[in-house]
Amino acid sequence: MKANLVLLPGDGIGPETTAAAVAVLRAIATRHAHDFVFTEHAIGGCAIDATGAALPAATRAACLQADAVLLGAVGGPKWSDPATPARPEQGLLQLRAALGVFANLRPVRVHPRAAALSPIKPERLAGVDLLFVRELTGGSYFGARTRDAASASDECRYTVVEIERVLRRAFDLARGRRGRVTSIDKANVLETSRLWRETAVRVAADYPDVVLEHQLVDSMAMLLLTRPADYDVLVTENLFGDILTDEAAVLAGSLGLLPSASLGDGRRGLYEPIHGSAPDIAGRGVANPIGSILSAALLLRHSLGLESEAREIEVAVDAVLDANELPRDLGGQAGTQDITAAVLAALAHSHAAQAAA
Ligand code: NAD
Ligand code: IPM
Ligand code: MN
């Protein structure tokens, strides 16, 4: 298969983790005779430095032409002054909007070895297999903003269309899993949440085979840590989803492990680990690349339809977590390149085993 893949390494550890994911994609391409054409573009702080814009027109145009986009991370202290006119994060929001990727899938699984390192009791982590579906192009991230000397506001607005399409995506995904959707809102206080909940009830009528439950976001923040194995698909609005998925990283053992896929109506998607640019460890070769590598697996699955290749990467990552020296964020000594080399070796091993069979 030929695929046109745009790389946006971005800032901080973004270039380090993206290079790892690209090495894995190249290994998959060689093994399966795919022709992946990679084109790199600037986004975020490095793009502001080079062009003045966080999402330069050339980057935006390339992404709109691509089969899929793989992003590292944006942002950092250099561009964090509240008075600064251009912000790296704004470039990412503009890209999500331009691509129309309203559904952000954030799967959370707990590898047994990482479970032993989690601050949560291992017995609570057994069987945890969550899929967050975070609404990505609406809510307070995209509402009107005001600011004067004495006050500031961020409008949180949702239309029925925006709510319904992401809920339908969550229900569709639940059908291929354990058939349960938990819709998370703050319907006891917020009007947008009341609209969200009413829409969820209406959409659920089209999915009699899927069980819908509602949870208020404050209580969900607690249940996620006390009863994580009870949940399957969790669907929620943009800001709640941002916060709850960083919390869910505690279940997995580290933020550095979690991937994401952002999808719209078509096949084109934006893939990125859920972590940020980690300025505290950038440039030291110690970032965990697994979130990026698993994002590459999601890219193969969702944008290119290469399910078995995606599985190969996931199995290789599991094998590395089973047997190899762990990365620093999981208490080990392995650096970014060590983990990347271990994943490549696990892939080569599985390819050799397949060839011998
Ligand atoms: P962060 O996710 O960058 O880092 C939080 C903590 O997790 C840090 O201690 C960091 O060292 C650690 N960490 C994160 N990823 C890791 C990895 N792969 N391996 C090992 N450790 C890892 O969050 P932050 O520090 O709050 O934000 C830093 C910058 O990143 C901010 O400018 C923020 O806006 C931006 N950000 C960008 C994205 C994105 O581009 N998608 C996501 C989140 C934050
Ligand atoms: C994420 C990040 C972004 C978000 C920021 C950098 C805009 O935290 O992808 O989780 O809040 O969506
Ligand atoms: Mn976030």
UniProtKB/TrEMBL annotation:
Q: What cellular-component terms does GO give this entry?
A: cytosol
For this chain's record, the cofactor binding note is:
Binds 1 Mg(2+) or Mn(2+) ion per subunit.
What InterPro entries would the database entry show? IsoCit/isopropylmalate_DH_CS, IsoPropMal-DH-like_dom, Isopropylmalate_DH
One GO biological process from the UniProt record? L-leucine biosynthetic process
Natural source organism: Arenimonas oryziterrae DSM 21050 = YC6267
Q: EC number(s) per UniProt?
A: 1.1.1.85
* Designated name of the protein: 3-isopropylmalate dehydrogenase
- Report residues binding Mg(2+): D218, D242, D246
Q: According to its UniProt record, in which pathway does this protein act?
A: Amino-acid biosynthesis; L-leucine biosynthesis; L-leucine from 3-methyl-2-oxobutanoate: step 3/4
* Classification of source organism: Bacteria, Pseudomonadati, Pseudomonadota, Gammaproteobacteria, Lysobacterales
Binding, substrate: R96, R106, R134, D218
Give me the reactions it catalyses. (2R,3S)-3-isopropylmalate + NAD(+) = 4-methyl-2-oxopentanoate + CO2 + NADH
**UniProt keyword terms in alphabetical order:** Amino-acid biosynthesis, Branched-chain amino acid biosynthesis, Cytoplasm, Leucine biosynthesis, Magnesium, Manganese, Metal-binding, NAD, Oxidoreductase
Q: A single Pfam family, by name?
A: Iso_dh
Summary of subunit composition and partner proteins: Homodimer.
Please describe what this protein does: Catalyzes the oxidation of 3-carboxy-2-hydroxy-4-methylpentanoate (3-isopropylmalate) to 3-carboxy-4-methyl-2-oxopentanoate. The product decarboxylates to 4-methyl-2 oxopentanoate.
| Stretches assigned to the Isopropylmalate dehydrogenase-like domain | 4-343
